[in-house]
Amino acid sequence: MKKVVLILMLSLLYSCNAKQIEQTNNLATDETYMAFDDISSEFENKGYKKDEFDPLSGYNRAMTSFNDSFYLYISKPVILTYKDIVHPTIRTGVSNFFTNLGFPIRFINNLLQFKFQNSWEELQMFLLNTTFGIAGLIDVAKENNFEIKHHDEDFGQTLATWGVGEGFHIVLPILGPSNLRDTFAFFVDDFANPLKKGDTSFYLSNSTEESIGIRTFKVVNNSSFKVEVYDKIRKDAIDLYPYLKDFHRKQREKQIKE
Known about the structure:
This protein has helices at 2-14, 18-46, 57-85, 88-101, 103-112, 116-131, 140-143, 155-161, 180-190, 208-223, 227-236, 240-257, and strands at residues 169-172, 176-179. It is mainly α.
C-alpha cells in the first residue's frame, strides 16, 4: 500500500510540468482517433467474416452483451467521474508512469522478435524516464524530441511472428475481445509485469487485492483519454459482437505488422 501512496504522491509532484503534458495528451488523443479511423475504414471495406470457425459464438455473444452493460453502467460512470475530478496533467503523468513500468514486457518481446534496435530504444527510454523523468512520470525522450520511441510488443505478437495462428475468438469477462493465442500469451507476459502480485521487489504489490486495485486504477486512468472511442464503435455497429470481433482482429493484425 505504501507503494501505491508513493505513486499518487509522485503524480501530484508531476503536475508542475503542465506544458509537456498538454502536448502529450493532445498527441495521444489524435493517435487514438487516427488508429480508430484506419481500422474502421478497413472494416467497412472488407465487411464481416461470417463463415469462420467460431465454436464459442453463443458464449461470446452473451459475454459481449455483459461487457457492454458493465461498461455502460459501471465502468463509464467511474471513468467520467475520474476524468472530471483529476486534472489532465496528473492523468497523463500517471499514464506515463504505467507505460514506463511496462518496459520489461516490451523489451523482452522485441528481443524475442529479433527487433534489437527497438529493444535498445526501449532500454534508453526506460533509463532516461526513470532517472530524469521522476520514476517515469515525465516522458523525457518525447519532451526533448529525441529520436527514440516506445515499441509496443507483447507475447501474442511474438507468437504471431513465430507463425502461431490466433486460434478461435474468445471474449473475456471485463477485458473484452481476445483469441486463444493472445489469452495464453497474456499469462506469459504477466510474469514480466510489475503490476502482478509477487513477493520480490520487482513487483509493486504482494497481495492480490492491491494488484487488482493498481491494475484497475491504470485502466480507469488510461480510459479517461479515450472514453468516446467505444461510444463511436457502438454507434457504428449494427451487430456489436461481430463488429468488435473484426475490429479487434484488424487492430491486432496492424500491431503485428508494425
